[in-house]
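Example record for the data management plan.
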Amino acid sequence: MKSTYLFSSPLGDIPVGPSDLKKPFRLSLSEKHEFLTLGDYFRCIEHFLYTAGLESLSDLFAAPASTDENRKEQVLERIVIRAEKHGALYHMASADLFKDSEMARVCIASAISTAGKRYLENEYELIRRLNRETGLSYLPCPYVKTLVDCHCHDRCVKFLMAAYQWFDDFHEWHFSRDESTGLEIRLWDTKRGHRWLKRDEALQLFSKISFILTMYYNVKTMQRIGPWHNGAGDFILRTSKQPIEVRLTTVRGYEPLFSDTTIDPFIGLIYFFLEHTIQIRMDRLNGIEEPVWAPKEYLEAAVSGLFRALEKKEGNGNPLPAPAHTIEKTLADLDGKEIRHLYHPIEEEYRHGPESQWKIINHNLDSHVEELAMAIKDACQ
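Corresponding structural encoding:
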């Protein structure tokens, strides 16, 4: 059995050297763990995969032409583990598992802090629930989750680790500034190198994000996935196949829009629409820099995707508070002043949120309302 440790990068995999393994394990960009090393982190993932994860991941490989008893004796011949991304709460890795000339790749989410474990536990169960209840396949399949002991210097800490389906050839994206055309979407393609999305691909992306989130919206209970953020890389896409494919990697929460359960679901759907069309326009330049606001053509694509999802729900027999065309017409009949008034409760929510987020919303809200009114009318024609 052999294990290989790598760093993932836009230029390809980078081997982890002996000196790297001795470096302190980072809890965040600015904070180091008091005694854990990067090597401890890799070895803990390895232990997770060879123990708790092994039986749960056995179905990723073809069943051997032998007895059920032999099938339980799974043997991994080699593992390649990549450190992919370190977030505020989770640490993300991928693992290539090799067995009998087969290879299966999984995503590994690890949390060490109390808050991180709580969020990872919640996310895992929410994804399981949504996969089961909706039958949709835009979220990863969760395979296994367990606490893993990590021993170092006669001390022990516990990681919560979860293995998920890996979306092959799907990549993160963000707005960047092109010298000639201005704000454009750049695909962080780790296989072929970073590149600018074609305009039709970029518009498809926004349409599909809206479609996906609307499909997961529960019209009856008014529960929706959130908070979600373009700036956090929640949505990933694959352009190697056409039309492009989009997936959602995380579910931080699934709460109703309103605490008052007596609110008419028709009103709830209108407010889901209004909240969504604000949220989808926000990103961070190059993923980590200042907040940016998507141009109006992306809003138009988002409205189109949302309406398409309502029609899909209706066609699938999922009850809406009114026929899809009635909902669309109601929105189209609203003028800019009426939409601006409806935004007041949402505006107050954002006003008490992160200052940088509120600043860009406040700067763009009036023009957003006018652009939204026009986008709705165009989508209804």
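Summary line stored alongside the record: The chain has a mean pLDDT of 91.
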